[in-house]
Design a protein that fits this description.
Blueprint (H helix, E strand, L loop, with lengths): L1 H29 L4 H5 L3 H4 L1 H10 L6 H14 L4 E2 L4 E2 H36 L4 H15 L2 H15 L11 H6 L3 H34 L3 H8 L4 H36 L1
Antiparallel strand pairs: 1-2
Amino acid sequence: MKAEYLVRRVFYSLLAFMISITLTFVLLHLMPGDYLHSILPYLAEKNPDAARMFREQFGLNRSVSEQYLLYVGNVVRGNWGYSFLYGLPVLAVIGEKLRWTLVILFPSTVLSILIGMAAGAYSGWINGTKTDLSVLNFMIFVGAVPSYWWAMLLILIFGFHLSLFPLGGYASIDALESGLRISDVLRHAALPVTALTISSVPGTYYLMRNSTLQTTREEYVLTARSKGLTEMEILRHHALKNAMLPMVTVIALELAQMITGSVFIET
């Protein structure tokens, strides 16, 4: 049964991957013009021979089916092309930018999961109380505000008015000249990490709260109460462990959403 489930998941993952790259290929070919005119608009008019060599080099003179097979093969092998803007391979450009994204993404992911799970577990355990409703309404408000708005608000208050943190970049000029200093990088990452954490906590909170609400109705919780255990003991040793199980499958989805949010915050 486990083997069948694994094979099915792998199959659907590969299917989703193929559909995604196929749609990307189709959309690019449905756009007016071609790749040559988009990056070198005057080459075809001024130097037809150079334009022909360019098309042959990048396979633009081949049929659509041949271009598609070449495209899929390059994607699978990790050959994602060459960036004429940066003068580097695409993977090199992504790798250079990705490390700074991870500097923001990793701590904000850990913080949002810890804060969201703790608040959700406690709120779900005291369901219906004034504290629960207050926290729930606060999370609804926080979740309704776009992540880039939190980023702009933090920059306005702590960066512009109070001048406690830098307004942009990932390091100061002095740090770049003398070698990156951890303290300088942390100062630049503080506001983006805070903004991304704030915008990501509500999603984890909702899931953990609902999961905890379900565990409060389980028989083992009622049995623990009948044995005279305190509410915190029941929550820590019995309910919390089982309430956390559904969260494992959701962390990947939360991470994908945070990556999307980090694009707006970084820009």
